[in-house]
Design goal:
The protein is α+β, with helices and mostly antiparallel strands. The chain has a single domain (40-283), classed as Carbonic Anhydrase II (Roll), CATH 3.10.200. It is 17% helix and 24% strand. The chain is built from 6 helices and 16 strands. It has helices spanning 5-22, 27-30, 155-158, 180-185, 248-255, 303-314, and strands at 55-56, 62-63, 69-72, 80-84, 89-93, 104-107, 114-123, 133-134, 137-138, 141-149, 165-174, 199-201, 219-224, 235-240, 244-246, 281-283. The strands form 2 sheets. Strands 2, 3, 4, 5, 6, 7, 10, 11, 12, 13, 14, 15 and 16 form a 13-stranded mixed β-sheet that branches. It has a 3-stranded mixed β-sheet with strand order 1-8-9, with no helix packed on it. Helix 1 packs antiparallel against helix 6 (303-314). It is globular and about 45 Å long. The model is unreliable at 1-41, 289-299 and 309-315 (pLDDT under 50). Bound molecules: 2-acetamido-2-deoxy-beta-D-glucopyranose (NAG). The site of 2-acetamido-2-deoxy-beta-D-glucopyranose (NAG) has 5 residues, from strand 13.
């Protein structure tokens, strides 16, 4: 077999599977959510062609051989501050008086070093609170960890470059027991009404690593935008396919937060946007000696897994 043969097999298989998968769209899952926040749509970049969030179709994602992520100082404990900005609750590290280097990421197919700047949450009224969807499925909530490209010096400066930000999208599902990290994080009592007080220091800081999914090896990658504010198209998105989990009681805490008019922040989810000319890449969990067909019931056992599994015997 020539060197090109495995690639040709892959391309043929890709076409076949794409055709098969188009035959069964689930319209109920793809129906747009009823309510959205229209204030954003008037802002400057929000009508662009590279907007976020999107519905990620795993069957059409293209396999990429990105290296693993390296999370630097993610397991360190820094003083942290919560802020209710009227649209979401945001967690920042209190930089004043900190001598240790702040968390940053490298690898994962990113060319530069990206420094952590803040994380925040999206949630909804029912259990449809994630902004991204994977194969039409919406999760109860989503965590965004925002990083800026260190070569631009500051977050604000990085905002105007297409490789300015790297954001993690982490799906949040429900479990019966509390998530311990969120027990420390959910200290919202002093910031429920931002017209009275909008920020508070966390009593017990949460290391960022406690908020990452168990598996950060496999993820989707696409170029998109911020989903709030000006919707700047400067985000390299990483959407992990492994969710984290919190309890229903913990999710309810987010819905008690209010905006600056005193209305309950029951939903802060932007509608999914069209892909236009973009592609979505997928990094499978890399272990070439054991193709990942071990769990056939996995909802994400899709084209990427099948290709890597089938390619193996051909070589
Ligand atoms: C994102 O955009 C950059 C610059 O145009 C490009 O090099 C890269 O391949 C794009 N990434 C994806 C996942 O399409």
């Amino acid at each position: 077999m020539t060197k090109a043969a495995p690639l040709l097999c892959k391309i043929a298989l890709f076409g076949l599977l794409v055709n098969l998968s188009i035959g069964k769209p689930n319209m109920a899952q793809l129906a747009p959510i009823a309510s959205f926040l229209s204030w954003r749509e008037h802002e400057s970049h929000c009508g662009g062609q590279h907007q976020s969030p999107i519905n990620i179709e795993s069957a059409t994602a293209i396999i990429a051989n990105y290296p693993e992520f390296v999370f630097h100082n993610y397991d360190l404990v820094f003083p942290e501050r919560l802020e209710n900005n009227g649209h979401t609750v945001e967690l920042k590290i209190e930089e004043q008086g900190i001598s240790a280097e702040l968390p940053f990421i490298t690898g994962g197919g990113l060319t530069d070093r990206y420094n952590f700047v803040q994380l925040h949450f999206h949630w909804g009224q029912s259990f449809s609170g994630s902004e991204h969807r994977i194969d039409g499925e919406q999760y109860p909530a989503e965590l965004h960890m925002v990083h800026y490209n260190s070569k631009y010096g500051t977050f604000t400066e990085a905002l105007s470059y297409e490789d300015g930000l790297a954001v993690f999208g982490i799906m949040i599902e429900l479990q019966s027991r509390d998530n311990i990290a969120f027990r420390h994080l959910e200290q919202f009592d002093n910031i429920i009404d931002p017209s009275i007080a909008n920020s508070d220091t966390l009593k017990y800081s949460v290391p960022l690593s406690d908020l990452l999914p168990d598996n950060t090896d496999s993820f989707f990658r696409y170029n998109g935008s911020l989903t709030t504010g000006d919707c700047n198209e400067d985000v390299i998105w990483t959407v992990f396919d492994t969710p984290i989990a919190i309890s229903e009681r913990q999710l309810a805490k987010f819905r008690r937060l209010r905006d600056e008019h005193g209305n309950e922040l029951v939903e802060n989810v932007r509608l999914t946007q069209l892909l236009h000319d973009r592609v979505v890449m997928y990094r499978p969990q890399s272990n070439p000696s054991s193709p990942s067909l071990s769990n056939p019931s996995s909802p994400l056992l899709s084209l990427p897994d099948l290709i890597s599994a089938i390619e193996f015997p051909l070589e």
